[in-house]
Input
Amino acid sequence: HLADLLVRKGYEVHGLLRRSSTFNKQNIDHLRGKIQYHYADLTDPFSLIWALKKSNPTEIYNLGAQSHVQISWEIPYYTAQVDAIGVLNLLEAVRVLGIKPKIYQASTSELFSGRERGAQNEKTPKDPISPYGTSKLFGFQIAKNYRDAYGMFICNGILFNHDSERRGDNFVTKKIVRDIKDLRLGNIYTKRDFGYSPEYMEIAWKMLQQDKPDDYVVATGETTSIKQFAQYVADAYGVPLNIKIDLEYSRPNDVPVLKGDARKARKKLKWKPKVKAKELANLMVNYEKRKL
Ligand code: GDD
Output
């Protein structure tokens, strides 16, 4: 979605490509010829230096991560190497080359414990409860350190869940939409603040168009349980909801409630969320139906 937006705006877009034995570019296949790729990896500082040297970017969006919270319990070391040290690698690569791009760091609502009273905003204490969240906290803080100490233009976007038709199969929204007739889920009572990825990428871009770098919470302000989201999906298909609980999909620890207070982004970036959970479920179901 970010690449779509940048291409639409006339940017020359460069992307980092992680080597894999099978292709995993299905979400950007339609942009073939409009993106220049560089094989690189956040855990390989030399590859970052080369990619930066070849592309000489004016803006960098670091969305690279091991982004699955449950899987971060199984590969915590790798998650930390990418989501924590990877950010440091990128920032140091920028410094080594002496370039001055504006930088967006994809931060997350998983920085919060989800046990706070009321909605979470930029001032809410950060107390992550998973290897993913803890690694992302390092990324958040090191970005802030470099901004404060070196005067680098870096923004942390503290984005709450954002999903879309293109969501990966093992995240809960897509899994529900795909498996509605034979649904096996873990904890269905956690609550998430679900927004729409294309809208959130527009906000990420806006952050870098400001005069000064800052950190922003991006969220809809509405919180929905997984069970309720599944109900929206069942309604959109017109089928009864039947969920089997399968402990394989529950986590050692799980953020119970996320509900973002995005007043700062709304005001400073002049933004208002359009798509919320129910509309998201409809969009995702319609897309799946069209595919069938
Ligand atoms: N994935 C998954 N699969 N989650 C399930 C399942 C299941 O079968 N059953 C219940 N859940 C619950 C999870 O335990 C969690 O409470 C919730 O559904 C959402 O899970 P995910 O869709 O995996 O997303 P997430 O909230 O853990 O993390 C996403 O949002 C973060 C922002 O808050 C990811 O996109 C992160 O990368 C992102 O930082």
Summary: The pocket of guanosine-5'-diphosphate-alpha-D-mannose is lined by residues 67, 69-70, 108-110, 160-161, 170-172, 175, 185-188, 190, 192, 226, 249, 251, 254, 258 (CB under 6 Å). The chain has a mean pLDDT of 97.
